[in-house]
């Protein structure tokens, strides 16, 4: 029976050649030249001066927050609807996460709701481009600027996307990316912090590398971490970056085929193709069952799975996470859009090797599973 995975990374470029070159050179740690080459090339692709590679996107978030000076007593605005990494990174810095609900149509954090949650202690706003659709980053940037707050931009789901004519990842004082295996560019595990500020870049480099001393290497002024990326991973990343435009093109093609075949199913809400300032790059193609759909999401997903179509649930909202409730966080706060998306949303296969027949197959299975 045909089995369609939710995603499979593809390695159709120079991955093997660069990894081979890396191994032959003997320089496989973060000291190897491929790490710097990948950092420079990636930073340039997003129009930023400095790239600091790390072992994953979660570490990149923590590094960005720490280097921005976020710590005990500070509040950081984060989306209620996102991956746990955002809220976790704020907590690891000793700061307090403050949640904001999403816009019902874009699924991104709602800028007007952000304004309502600012206090004298708000130190930073963490903007996330959800599922490949850029957030209203100009609104968030001007809000941050008007209050002297730091704008952090999480573009882990928006490789290759542009907003207001500029690359996503070029707006934040610090921006972060992930190169996990299901991201648009992958190094297996990996991440990057980008910034134009040389001082922040230096702090990131130091903290990522155990804060080794300047004069005596093994005398440490601060407590750092080892978040380094190996040159082997960077070699893969450099090759992946060369293919990013093709990845974006293929994902948009998949999305357009899905859209043609699914727009007649009126119990389904499809992701927005564009906003007034950006076009979706479809990290994933998320669908939401509308109120009154004949079956609950778990049923639909189970039936799809039986038919050979893999799907994933949407994120679970931060205020409903058992781990944060046990920590006494978020009390009985409510974020109705995040709650509804979590209960009704899931995403469809987005492999770059999907054929038109595969997409027909998924869409037929989906319309049967829903009815
Ligand atoms: C994937 C992701 C991360 C975390 O990246 P990892 O490399 O898995 O640690 C952070 N933020 C967002 C928005 C993500 O989608």
Written account of the structure:
- The chain is an alpha/beta fold and 371 residues long.
- Helix content is 38%, strand content 15%.
- The protein has 13 helices and 13 strands.
- The protein has helices at 15-25, 33-45, 57-67, 84-92, 111-116, 137-146, 198-208, 231-241, 244-262, 297-306, 322-326, 336-344, 356-370, and strands at 50-54, 75-79, 96-100, 122-128, 150-154, 162-163, 166-167, 174-178, 191-195, 268-269, 285-289, 312-313, 345-348.
- The chain has a 7-stranded mixed beta sheet, with helices on both faces. The chain has a 4-stranded antiparallel beta sheet with strand order 10-11-13-12.
- Helix 9 crosses helix 13 (356-370).
- The radius of gyration is 21 Å and the shape is globular.
- The model has no long low-confidence stretch (mean pLDDT 97).
- The structure holds pyridoxal-5'-phosphate.
Features:
371 residues, alpha/beta, seven-stranded mixed beta sheet, 38% helix
